[in-house]
């Protein structure tokens, strides 16, 4: 036993030099998609996440383990989840409605959690307007006032092809921590159609400015459009600012994906860094051709009056797809982070997840792979309409969907300043990878899966918090290359409730993950 433990510890220490970001499977239950995530700005170890249609998840250990539950509301829960947090550590979960009495998507609902995302109130709502449909909300919290700003698309009749039906962008704010909402204001000048495609106005993501401004951009028949309020969203100008065209539109085809969009995300730097006040817009489009979708960024340093030429964020050679991007700013540092799916490494539909990081105000980006292994999507499986990413004080948590066979899951990566700094420009293909156990937390049993990219002699050992081995699942076993799964019977191991580690060890590598035992 002592010899094996020593080998495990030695090999685990040797593997630290590899640049792999640990991937944590948050959930594989109920075909989760369209994920959202928010890191608490009060206690960064507290993280909340959500997914279609009505799931929420919470973690109190920086995202290493997660608990899942189902969101309910008297107004119904119909998907398009958005999670944000305020300066008091409260979380807000915005989503579409499906009330027992009323029309489908008749309002936007906001539910609040004051206990780190464990439970949620019944919620408040905005946008109730007869038979019109309210769709795709997104929110942001002003860190100075804790006002919550929300934008969304209102359809006269969703899916209608009638020229008499249109879509518009609406804005509402809450100045009382989500208890009530102001009368929705239309902020776009040129309306869109109701087809939920290129000529529909979609993708409005609000961004607080440093002095009470609210910045918003969206996509539609006029391309990429921008507007701003100078008084915390109370009033808005009559005219909008054109930022750039979107060649090919925001609704485009990606092989193997049920549907894909390049709708924009708006952020403003509120940090005390040198780029304070800079506004950024990120999106994807096919200006370089239908077989070459790319990630783009523009920025403004004069309050949105003028904008830079679109800059390509992904740094691979032309000809591959990068899609479903999302952007955030770590407001403690001013660093930009953009997550996206990426096919640069393959000639087929295999897909990785990459993150681009900028430390110089979006002037340059470093691309790095954050997924441990590629996945193969299936066009019959709906992935949702977006990924997401949250960052605070050098702790970054992206979130995305992946498909393994018929199992759709949502995944995050443990990206912190330490492992971010030692990531090289070119990620090596690691010989082993380890998945988060499921279920996690576990009660009676759990499953641990791993992958070998070449044959190896393997040990899989469970340790307690003090580094003492409590169970050996595999001991010095020769295995071929491939994917493997071990079932761990907790009742036989007689484990007490608490936090444990499991480590996969070969003769040249090791990797470790945490698990919770109830």
Tell me what the structure shows.
The chain is mainly beta and 518 residues long. Among the domains are: 3-10 and 431-517, Sandwich (Immunoglobulin-like); 71-244, Neuraminidase. Helices cover 4% and strands 44% of the residues. It has three helices and 38 strands. The strands form ten sheets. Strands 1, 28, 29, 30 and 31 form a five-stranded antiparallel beta sheet that branches. Strand 24 (322-330) and strand 25 (335-342) form a beta hairpin. The longest helix is centred in the N-terminal third of the chain and has 14 residues, at 2-15. It is globular and about 70 Å long.
Q: Span from first to last CA?
A: 27 Å
CATH level 1 name of the domain at 71-244? Mainly Beta
What structural class do the secondary elements suggest? mainly beta
CATH topology-level fold name of the domain at 71-244: Neuraminidase
Cα radius of gyration in angstroms: 23 Å
Largest sheet: 5 strands, antiparallel
Instruction: Tell me what the CATH architecture of the domain at 71-244 is.
Output: 6 Propeller
Q: Looking at the structure, what is the overall shape?
A: globular
The average pLDDT score comes to: 91
| Regions with little confidence, pLDDT below 50 for 5+ residues | 1-19, 422-428
| Topology, number of strands | 38
Helix content: under 10%
Number of helices: 3
């Amino acid at each position: 036993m002592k010899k094996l433990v020593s080998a495990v510890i030695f090999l685990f220490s040797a593997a630290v030099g590899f640049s792999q970001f640990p991937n944590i499977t948050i959930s594989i239950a109920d075909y989760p998609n369209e994920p959202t995530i928010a890191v608490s700005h009060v206690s960064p170890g507290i993280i909340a996440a959500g997914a279609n249609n009505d799931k929420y998840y919470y973690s109190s250990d920086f995202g290493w383990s997660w608990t899942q539950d189902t969101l309910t509301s008297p107004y119904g829960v119909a998907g398009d989840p958005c999670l944000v947090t305020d300066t008091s550590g409260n979380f807000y979960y915005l989503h579409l409605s499906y009330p027992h009495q009323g029309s489908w998507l008749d309002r936007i609902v906001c539910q609040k959690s004051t206990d780190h995302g464990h439970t949620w109130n019944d919620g408040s709502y905005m946008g109730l307007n007869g038979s019109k449909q309210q769709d795709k909300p997104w929110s942001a919290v002003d860190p100075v006032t804790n006002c919550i700003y929300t934008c969304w698309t209102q359809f006269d009749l969703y899916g209608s092809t009638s020229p008499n039906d249109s879509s518009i962008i609406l804005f509402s704010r809450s100045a009382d921590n989500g208890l009530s909402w102001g009368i929705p204001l239309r902020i776009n000048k040129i309306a869109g159609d109701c087809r939920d495609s290129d000529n529909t106005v979609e993708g409005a993501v609000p961004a607080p400015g440093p002095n009470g401004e609210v910045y918003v951009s969206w996509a539609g028949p006029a391309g990429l459009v921008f507007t701003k309020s100078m008084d915390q969203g109370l009033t808005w100008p009559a005219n909008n600012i054109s930022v750039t065209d979107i060649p090919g539109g925001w609704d485009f085809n990606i092989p193997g994906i049920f549907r894909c969009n390049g709708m924009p995300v708006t952020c403003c730097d509120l940090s005390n860094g040198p780029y304070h006040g800079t506004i950024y817009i990120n999106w994807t489009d096919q200006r370089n051709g239908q077989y070459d979708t790319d990630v783009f960024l523009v920025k403004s340093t004069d309050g949105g009056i003028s904008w830079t030429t679109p800059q390509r964020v992904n740094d691979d050679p032309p000809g591959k797809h990068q899609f479903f991007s999302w952007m955030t700013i770590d407001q403690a540092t001013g660093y930009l982070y953009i997550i996206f799916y990426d096919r640069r490494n393959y000639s087929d539909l295999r897909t990785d997840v990459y993150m681009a990081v900028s430390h110089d105000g979006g002037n340059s980006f470093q691309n790095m792979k954050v997924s441990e292994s590629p996945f193969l999507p299936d066009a019959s499986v709906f992935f949702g309409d977006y990924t997401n990413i949250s960052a605070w004080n050098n702790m970054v948590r992206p979130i995305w969907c992946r498909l393994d066979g018929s199992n759709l899951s949502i995944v995050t990566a443990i990206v912190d300043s330490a492992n971010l700094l030692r990531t090289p420009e070119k990620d090596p293909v690691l010989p082993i990878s380890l998945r988060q156990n499921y279920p996690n937390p576990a009660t009676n049993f759990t499953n641990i899966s791993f992958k070998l990219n070449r044959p190896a002699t393997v040990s899989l050992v469970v340790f307690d918090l003090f580094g003492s081995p409590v169970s050996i699942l595999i001991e010095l076993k020769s295995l071929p290359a491939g994917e493997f799964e071990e079932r761990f019977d907790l009742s036989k191991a007689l484990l007490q409730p608490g936090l444990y580690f499991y480590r996969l060890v070969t003769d040249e590598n090791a990797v470790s993950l945490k698990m919770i035992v109830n």
